[in-house]
């Protein structure tokens, strides 16, 4: 947001490195024309994000394969909009686009209304989707909370139950296409064949993010960017970025890396169950870190009250029957997302 205008820094892309490179380029400039300045316009930013999501992933009427979310990091205490922002909020609700807001200064009433309406919450109620940071660590905590995919709604659960299971989603894994250069022997002329790409975003982005190609006669070819495209496996049309929906046949196009990053959200690891207190245990060491567990406790009539406040310090996977300590249990479920015991038995 800059002087009431929403500027697009990086186009829709499934590559985290692409967005990091764009941010580093902005940070390296001495005079950054995208630096926030003047009055912000929340409406213009929401409209631009809404158009990007609708163009790349379809509307709620013709696509139910994915959830569409917008994260707003808002540092101002007001918004200067050219029109009625409540109509924009209504359009977001109609397109089933959910908005989360992280405030950098204080809570703003219009942001609270935006979060409540798009997430279908009660009016003027505190929401976990809107938080104001207290320090740097709190900001990181709020930001990481937005990474977790949204849970299924009651309507989606009823739809799955009525159809006896989760519907099959058809996806395509496109092939990467790069420009090819041809030259004849004894001739300095260069012929470069670039793939004709279909735009996978409604705007051309910034001038600095556009790929510029200059071809000089008898001087070869100089490129200031790399033109890379992806070919749809179904209709053979070409798109610029992934993930997106093919503009010709409507097939959802992704890479295997996108599926791998979201796999542990689609099939979450089952929680471990605490092993009850006993005088003897099958395992003496944690299967993850190999630290020794505490020994068993003898059960007597006098120690019943103490046993209620004690723990075995063992948490067992019900699939592979391996025991883990509390630290490994937290690490496996929050970071690794795979059980070492189950992976070792394969």
Automatic annotation (TrEMBL):
Stored SUPFAM superfamilies: Cysteine-rich domain, vWA-like
Alphabetical keyword list: Metal-binding, Zinc
Domain of life: Eukaryota
SMART domains associated with the record: C1_4
One Gene Ontology cellular component annotation held by this UniProt entry: transcription factor TFIIH core complex
InterPro entries the record matches: C1-like_sf (IPR046349), Ssl1-like (IPR007198), TFIIH_C1-like_dom (IPR004595), TFIIH_SSL1/p44 (IPR012170), vWFA_dom_sf (IPR036465), Znf_C2H2_type (IPR013087), Znf_RING/FYVE/PHD (IPR013083)
Start and end residues, zinc fingers (C4-type): 232-249
NCBIfam families: ssl1
Protein name, entry field: C2H2-type domain-containing protein
Protein species of origin: Spathaspora passalidarum (strain NRRL Y-27907 / 11-Y1)
């Amino acid at each position: 947001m800059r002087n009431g205008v929403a500027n697009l820094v990086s186009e829709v892309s499934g590559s985290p490195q692409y967005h990091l490179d764009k941010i580093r380029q902005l940070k390296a400039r001495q005079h950054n024309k995208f630096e926030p300045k003047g009055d912000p316009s929340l409406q213009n930013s929401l409209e631009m994000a809404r158009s990007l999501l609708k163009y790349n992933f379809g509307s709620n009427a013709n696509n139910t394969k994915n959830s569409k979310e917008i994260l707003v990091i808002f540092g101002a205490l007001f918004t200067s909009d050219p029109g009625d922002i409540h109509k924009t909020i209504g359009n977001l609700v109609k397109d089933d686009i959910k908005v989360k807001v992280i405030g950098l200064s204080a809570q703003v009433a219009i942001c609270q209304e935006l979060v409540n309406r798009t997430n279908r919450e009660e009016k003027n109620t505190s929401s976990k989707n809107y938080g104001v940071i207290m320090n740097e660590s709190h900001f990181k905590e709020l930001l990481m909370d937005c990474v977790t995919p949204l849970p299924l709604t009651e309507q989606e659960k009823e739809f799955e139950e009525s159809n006896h299971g989760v519907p099959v989603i058809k996806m395509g894994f496109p092939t990467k296409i790069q420009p090819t250069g041809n030259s004849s022997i004894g001739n300095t002329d260069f012929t470069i064949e670039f793939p004709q790409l279909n735009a996978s975003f409604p705007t051309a982005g910034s001038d600095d993010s556009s790929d510029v190609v200059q071809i000089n006669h008898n001087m070869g070819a100089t490129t200031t960017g790399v033109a890379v495209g992806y070919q749809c496996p179904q209709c053979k049309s070409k798109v610029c970025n992934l993930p997106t929906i093919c503009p010709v046949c409507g097939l959802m196009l992704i890479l295997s890396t996108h599926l791998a990053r979201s796999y542990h959200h689609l099939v979450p690891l089952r929680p471990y169950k605490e092993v009850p207190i006993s005088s003897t245990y099958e395992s003496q060491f944690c299967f993850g870190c190999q630290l020794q567990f505490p020994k068993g406790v003898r059960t007597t009539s006098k120690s019943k009250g103490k046993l209620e406040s004690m723990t075995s310090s063992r948490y067992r996977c019900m699939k592979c029957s391996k025991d883990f300590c509390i630290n490994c249990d937290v690490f496996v479920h929050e970071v690794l997302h795979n059980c070492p015991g189950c992976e070792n038995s394969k």
